[in-house]
Amino acid sequence: MRLYSLLIISTLVVLGIADGDDDNKNYNVTNRPFPKGFKFGVATAAYQIEGAWNIDGKGPQMWDDFFHETPSRAFDGSNGDIAVDSYHLYKEDIRCMEEVGVDYYRLSLSWARILPDGTTDNINQLGVDYYIKVFEALEAKGIKTMVTIYHWDLPSALHSKGGWLNPDIINWFADYAELCYKLFGKYADSWITINEPKQICHGGYGIGAYAPGIVSNGIKDYICAKNVLLAHAKAWRIWDEKYRKVYGAKNTLVIDSDWYEPSTNSKEDAIASDTKLQFVHGMYGNPVVNGNWPDVMIKNVADLSRKQGFNESRLPAFTEEEQKLLKGRIQPIMLTLKITSCIIAGTYDFFALNHYTTYMVKARTQEILTVSWDDDSKVDIYQKSEDIWKPAAIDWFRIVPWGFGKLLRWMRKTYGNIEIVITENGVSDKTGILKDQTRIDFLRNYMSHMLDAIHEADVNVTAYTLWTIMDNFEWTLGYIGKSGLYYVNRTDPALPRIPKDSAKYYSKIIKTKCLIDDCLNE
Ligand SMILES: *[C@@H]1O[C@H](CO)[C@@H](O)[C@H](O)[C@H]1NC(C)=O
Ligand SMILES: *[C@@H]1O[C@H](CO)[C@@H](O)[C@H](O)[C@H]1NC(C)=O
Ligand SMILES: *[C@@H]1O[C@H](CO)[C@@H](O)[C@H](O)[C@H]1NC(C)=O
Ligand SMILES: *[C@@H]1O[C@H](CO)[C@@H](O)[C@H](O)[C@H]1NC(C)=O
């Protein structure tokens, strides 16, 4: 999960019972059950839970440096040195998962724990052993795994060589990913190459709110995006060509996207909504499906770059060879029992979506020539006032359940009938309150809109991953943003995990496959 927004953190609001959303007042939670075979999981990320930042041979990674150098980058001056100590307490985490009854656990691997200097020249066996222990403990409880290879924690040694701005990272990452396939292939039930490229690139190299804190909006974030996409594509193809037939698991990239609701029903605002979605989801979705940036991005960035006096577009082009790499394998298809043609399959096995909130969007009437990714979309975005949409732990996080359903329908329309797995969804508060009715309402309403999209619009969502199993280190929000089904008591050195009401609610949904007390039979 990502919760930056340093500027507005002073407006933190304590959660109450969600009550203010006019659009949701008359909304009846669906009485239809989840489809047969639908799976439920919980997600975490290495830096947010493991701690043990310098233990047993782990190397430093750029988020360690980011907070050690400037502690105030975290709202509470904290860092992930200890986090919730899952390096030692992973069995506790797994006990919680067993209690809730999840089908699978989405976790991430720490690159610098496995490869302290980032390269495969120097493998840290103790780091490898840690993950094998976690996988074996999960296997013993019958909990499947979804393994994220990269969730933002770039080894410092690679950051000092340019990190995501250096095209060599395509090979650094591919080597690391291949090592993960070899070491953990027999434990991973599905793979995620990279989590949330928008946050890595725009957060880390555009606005600089995230590690490594580089500010170059509309320039370096695009260079990062190109390298992230090619690193993903190369790692995905190594899986596809060499390891898929051995282990069988699916592999993909996680893309995070908000929903952008047109502010009026004018044609211009409908187009503005689609354009913004292309700059957010399409920027990463279109390359892995079709091998290139969305057309509207290519057109807008070229146009504004020219007007801004650049000699070429700030959006780096993909060469023909790079486009082929992104488009993935050529797959023979059988028609009437005869191989008759080939399709290009893209570098994904399913779409993985992280979703939290919704913005309003309207077409711009006046051109703005500021150099930034935000302005390249040529639209304005805003959120409605608090009395309409209830804010959660931080200001931008409005609870807008119907936005989730609309985003899923947009993906179905834009990309066709592709399997979708929700890899993150959830809500943070700053209390960690055990009677967390707001979280229950959030889950019930967001999942209801997801189910409506499944049943009414033929959107093929096959699994839902809740962020997160227990309160943990929430990046720049420190320990203040609490999103867990379990509260972690940080004043007790044992860091006990204590179930909130939402843990029982999620557990019940998993058992009954139903969001309310009694569902229709299907
Ligand atoms: C919700 O259910 C109530 C009672 O069954 C019904 O009167 C109302 O019209 C429903 N609202 C919507 C938006 O379907
Ligand atoms: C554009 O300018 C940059 C330096 O600002 C230079 O490196 C690059 O080669 C130029 N490109 C073209 C196509 O002239
Ligand atoms: C959804 O995707 C899965 C995995 O590709 C597939 O097995 C299933 O048939 C699809 N369901 C629908 C309704 O398209
Ligand atoms: C947290 O731990 C402290 C120290 O053990 C204890 O005094 C306190 O009651 C605990 N709080 C909760 C909510 O369990």
Concise synopsis of the structure shown:
This protein has 522 residues and is an alpha/beta fold. The chain has helices at 22-25, 46-49, 62-69, 86-100, 111-114, 125-140, 156-159, 169-184, 197-206, 220-247, 267-290, 295-307, 320-327, 373-376, 401-415, 437-457, 501-512; strands spanning 39-43, 104-108, 144-150, 190-195, 250-256, 259-262, 330-335, 338-344, 351-354, 358-363, 379-382, 420-424, 461-467, 486-488, 497-499.
Structure overview:
This protein has 17 helices and 15 strands. The chain has helices at 22-25, 46-49, 62-69, 86-100, 111-114, 125-140, 156-159, 169-184, 197-206, 220-247, 267-290, 295-307, 320-327, 373-376, 401-415, 437-457, 501-512, and strands spanning 39-43, 104-108, 144-150, 190-195, 250-256, 259-262, 330-335, 338-344, 351-354, 358-363, 379-382, 420-424, 461-467, 486-488, 497-499. The longest helix has 28 residues, at 220-247. Mean pLDDT is 92; it is low at 3-22. The structure holds 2-acetamido-2-deoxy-beta-D-glucopyranose (4 copies).
Give the helix level as a range of percent. Answer: 25-40%
**Beta-sheet strand percentage?**
15-25%
- Could you tell me the mean pLDDT? 92
Number of domains in the coordinates? 1
Jot down its keywords.
hydrolase, three-stranded mixed β-sheet, TIM Barrel, alpha/beta, glycosidase, disordered N terminus, binds 2-acetamido-2-deoxy-beta-D-glucopyranose, eight-stranded parallel beta barrel
